[in-house]
């Protein structure tokens, strides 16, 4: 591989949204990573949305109905940024009432309350990634 080609690859990599690039060509190998002091955005949401040990212990102790993420996606507590959230802590909800949206592959999926009750915990963070089966809400049946 020519030196000019290598510099061209480096320039294209720096101008792209890629964070890692690895190229192998015959006996030549090139590995590029962007980093600096910045954490890639894809890693940060996963770290922030993991339930704490305390939250997990509380979830096991109470008899609240756990509402879990049906898929991996982005959590939205409202239909639009300028709208109020679907529910807040302490709100009374009806069975089938929309609690939040989870966006996956550009599709908005409504997450609905399985019971009539009172919202006792909201574990989703607006705009952050949620994992499959992550507890997003706890609803006290009434």
Helix content: 10-25%
Task: From the 3D structure, determine the CATH topology of the largest domain.
Answer: OB fold (Dihydrolipoamide Acetyltransferase, E2P)
Number of E-type strands: 10
Domain unit count:
2
By CATH, the superfamily of the largest domain comes out as RNA polymerase II/Efflux pump adaptor protein, barrel-sandwich hybrid domain
Between the first and last Cα atoms, what is the distance in angstroms?
70 Å
Give me some keywords for this one.
single chain, 142 residues, alpha+beta, OB fold (Dihydrolipoamide Acetyltransferase, E2P), 4-stranded antiparallel beta sheet, 3 helices, elongated
Folded structure, characterized:
The chain is of the alpha+beta class. The chain has 2 domains: 3-33, no CATH class; 51-141, OB fold (Dihydrolipoamide Acetyltransferase, E2P). 20% of the residues lie in helices and 35% in strands. The chain contains 3 helices and 10 strands; from the N terminus they run αββααββββββββ. It has helices at residues 3-14, 43-49, 53-61, and strands at 20-25, 28-33, 65-68, 73-76, 92-93, 98-104, 107-112, 117-122, 129-130, 135-141. Strands 3-10-8-5 form a 4-stranded antiparallel sheet, with no helix packed on it. The chain has a 4-stranded antiparallel sheet with strand order 7-6-4-9. A two-stranded antiparallel sheet has the order 1-2. A hairpin with a 2-residue loop joins strand 6 and strand 7 (107-112). Mean pLDDT is 83; it is low at 39-49.
């Amino acid at each position: 591989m020519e030196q000019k080609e290598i510099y061209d690859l480096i320039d294209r990599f720096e101008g792209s949204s890629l964070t890692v690039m690895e190229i192998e060509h015959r006996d030549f190998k090139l590995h590029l990573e962007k980093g600096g002091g910045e954490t890639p955005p894809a890693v940060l949401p996963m770290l922030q949305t993991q339930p704490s040990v305390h939250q997990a212990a509380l979830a096991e102790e109470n008899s609240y109905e756990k509402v879990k993420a049906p898929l991996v996606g982005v959590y939205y507590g409202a239909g639009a940024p300028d709208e109020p959230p679907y529910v807040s802590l302490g709100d009374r909800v009806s069975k089938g009432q929309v609690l939040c949206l989870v966006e996956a592959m550009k599709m908005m999926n409504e997450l609905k309350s399985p019971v009539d009750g009172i919202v006792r915990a909201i574990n989703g963070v607006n705009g952050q990634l949620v994992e499959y089966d992550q507890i997003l809400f706890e609803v006290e049946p009434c």
